[in-house]
Amino acid sequence: MENALFVFALGLGFGLLLVWSFKTLPGEKWQIFASVPVAKEGPDRWRGVNLTYYGLLNALAYAAAAALMLVLLGSISVPALGIFMVAAAILACCVPASTLVARIVEKKPCTFTVGGASFVGIVIAPWVIEFVNGTLGRVMDLHIPVIPTLAALSISYALGEGTGRLACISFGCCYGMPLSKSHPVIRKLFENRSFTFFGKTKKIAYASGLDGEKVIPVQAITSILYMGAGVVGVSLFLQSKFQAAFALSVLITQVWRVLSEMLRADYRGEGRVSAYQVMGVAAAVYAMSLPLVLPSVPLPPPDLMAGLRLIWNPLPLLLIQALAFLVFMRTGRSMVTGSSLSFHVIRERI
What we know:
Layout: H1 2-24, E1 32-42, E2 45-52, H2 53-75, H3 80-106, H4 114-134, H5 136-140, H6 146-171, H7 184-190, E3 195-196, H8 203-208, E4 214-215, H9 218-238, H10 242-260, H11 275-293, H12 304-311, H13 314-331, E5 339-341
Antiparallel strand pairs: 1-2, 2-5, 3-4
C-alpha cells in the first residue's frame, strides 16, 4: 500500500507543479527574481547581478532528483557511502559537461546543455559503479548492483530534467517553432495549447525575436513526458522490475530528445541533424546494450520505508541542500542580462 501511495503522491505533486508552471512561467516577471548590487556606476546608481528563476528551478530539479535517487537506492539496501561516491563522481563529470558540450556544439561560452550532460552521464555511469565496487567495495565488503542502480539514476534523471525544463520556460530558452510557420496539423494541435513568452530579456526575444508570438510548447511536452516516465519508472522499480524501469526512462528521455529537436526554433548547432540528436540515438542504443554485458544479481523486493529512513537524516538532507545551493550559484547568476539599480529614502516614512 505504501508503494502505491508514494507513487500517487509523486504524480499528484508533480502534476500540480506542471499546471502552475505552464500558466505562470512564460510571463515577463518570472525570469529574474532578484538583483544584487555589486559595483557603483555613478553617485546614485549601482550595477547589479541578476538572480534567476532558471537557477532556482534547476536547483529544485537537482535536489528532487538526488532525493529520489537516495530513496530508491536506499530501498534496495545500497549503503549511503556508496551512493554518495557514485553520485559525486557522476555529477563531477556532468555539471562541467553541461557547459563544455554547449561550447563545442553551439560555440557559446555562456550557455548550458542538459542533453550533453545527460549523454556524458549515461556513458560513464555503469563504469563509475563498477569502479566503486572494485575499490571501495573491496575495502568495505559492499557491492552496488549495477542494473538497479542504473535504473534509479535514470528514473531520477527523468524526473529531474522534467522539473528542470520548467526553468527553460522561465528563461525563455529551448523554445519551439512559431505556430505560424508550423505544419497545419501541428498548428491545429497546439493552437489552444501554445506558449506565448513576454519580456525582452527572455532568450526567445533577444535570440529569435519571437516574444509575444505563439510557439510550440516543447518544454511543456518534455516535462510531461519525462515526469510521466519517472513516475511510472518508480512504480516499476518498487516492483523489482529494474530492467524495465531502466529501459522505459532511458528510451523515453533519449528518443524524445531526438524528436523534440524537430520542433525547436533555438540554435542547436550546424546541420540538419543536430549533435544532440546524434547523442540521443547513441545514448539509447548504448543503454539498451548494457544489460547484455553487465552482471545481474537477484535482490530482495525494494523496501520503500528503508529508503525514506535513509533520506530522513541530517547528513543526507544537508548534502542535498548543499547540492541545490551549488547548482543555484552556477546556473542562477545570469550571464546574459544585466541591471542598474538605484535606491532612495521614502521621506514620508521617516
